[in-house]
Design brief:
Length: 162
């Protein structure tokens, strides 16, 4: 495993590009997922998408405190309800904003061994899934911030960094 550099929204255009699907789950993909996991934990994040470490592949790791989830080619197939909560991002350090997301989502993906699975997420997990899948499509949370809710880190305590 190795720590990867986290891309910054001000300097790294890769964050605005659409990631490509993973065709074959090989050891290289598993190694990248391990690197992403180590990088996410080292940065005290709750999620990380491959474009955030400079790789245009549809890979996501999430841990909101309930255990690590690794997703390959995740797709939201169902969304229901609404929540509006503060979000932050490892690629946008020090900036937070309130974003409207579904309260519940169902995601189809492959696990790290290439086996398909469905994942239902509510609350914080639903938010993290939407946030990270947005990264795979070149979308940043600041694109969806509710007007007037953008805050500098120095003025906020206790926001989750996704």
């Amino acid at each position: 495993m190795a720590l990867r550099n986290i891309m910054n929204y001000q300097t790294d255009e890769i964050l605005r590009k659409k990631a490509k699907a993973v065709e074959n789950v090989k050891s290289r993909i598993q190694s990248l997922l391990a690197d992403m996991t180590e990088t996410m934990y080292h940065a005290d994040g709750a999620g990380l998408a491959a474009p955030q470490v400079g790789i245009l592949r549809r890979l996501v790791v999430i841990d909101i405190g309930a255990g690590l989830i690794k997703l390959i080619n995740p797709v939201i197939v169902e969304a229901d309800g609404e929540q509006q909560e503060m979000e932050g991002c490892l690629s946008i350090p020090g900036i937070y904003g309130k974003v409207k997301r579904p309260e519940k989502v169902v995601v189809k993906a492959l696990d790290e061994n290439g086996k398909p699975f469905d994942l239902e997420g509510t609350g914080m997990l639903a938010r993290a899934l939407c946030h990270e899948i947005d990264h795979l499509n070149g979308i940043l949370f600041i694109d969806k911030v509710i007007s007037g809710s953008l805050i500098n880190q120095n003025h906020l305590r206790g926001a989750e960094i996704i």
